[in-house]
Amino acid sequence: MKYYSCVVACWALLAVVGRATPAKIEGLEQTQEIDDVNDRDPELPRTCELSTDINETSFQNPGYPSATSIPTDACRHKVYPVNDYICQIRLDLKDFILAQPDWDGVCATDFMQVSGAMTKIPQICGINSGQHLYLEVTPDFGSVTINVDTSAPGAKWSISVAQIECNSPYRAPAGCLQYFTSTHGTIKSFNYDATTFNSPNTPPTATTQLASQAYGVCIKPQSGFCSVAYTKTSGVSDDYSFSLSGDASVLPIGAIGSVGSTDCTTDYLMIPMGTITDTTYPATSADRYCGVNFPSKVESLVQPFVFYVVTDETETNHADPALDDGPNVGFSIGYRMQAC
Ligand SMILES: [Ca+2]
Ligand SMILES: [Ca+2]
């Protein structure tokens, strides 16, 4: 009963206090204290302005599984360590639908932001159900705050929060915002599921790729496997399912992508010493991949198996609008470990 009455009270409080604090980023610096919830029931979902000090809890929007009917403004969830041996926190975005970014890929309406961890988390918005993130913390981290800030109705999220001990086999290597442990799988850019083309054969009409990203995606090494091969999950060279830079709406379908550090300077994937198995490309190896397409296969044997995602803060070329860097949809890349 304490929880439910608090939900109502906190919701009412947000409606009043939240609106009185229009600054978005500064939301985390509000003097308003987050309520400590010491209910030991992990099944009890936590919503705005509530905390947890037990493992495996969920942070959800008010009214979940329905979407919000009014903006929440800053909606914060504070996570305290369950013991003195916590080195990571894994966030699983079970359900995550926020407003889309603006034309520059900036999360200007809604965003999720995390503070208190060593890992710098990019601001995330749009559709990210099924994505996950690892936050690196020190065992004496104090607390981590997850802030989902919405200024439009229609947001919906359910984020499970798992604390990982320093000696846990589930701990990801340091520096990996995302960590994949199977021998094959799919790695998607954040908000990739908000594809703005009607089909992969029609050009995108808006940028869904998010700005200001810089993170590593790691793949767990396995005995008997010596390299990783990356391909577009669409499996089709002549489509618009991949675009990181360049105006995908004017380039012809099937145009080859760009590779290398000269051409890929704004938004790109970095695959260390990638070997290109695609004779339509002018290079046989490159570290950077961008443009409006991806080679039929890129293989890397550099361990640890990591690829990096980098985007700058804009899609606009102020000096020459004809060279605007979008609309771009990001990437959906399949990875498969290759036997030695
Ligand atoms: Ca771009
Ligand atoms: Ca950009």
TrEMBL record:
Keyword terms: Disulfide bond, Signal
Ranges where the CUB domain occurs: 48-164, 176-338
Cleaved signal peptide residues: 1-22
Lineage top rank: taxon: Eukaryota
Disulphide-bridged cysteine pairs: 48-75
Any Pfam family hit: CUB_animal
Alphabetized InterPro entries for the sequence: CUB_dom, CUB_metazoa, Sperma_CUB_dom_sf
The protein, known as: Uncharacterized protein LOC108672679
Organism in which the protein naturally occurs: Hyalella azteca
Lineage of the species this protein comes from: Eukaryota, Metazoa, Ecdysozoa, Arthropoda, Crustacea
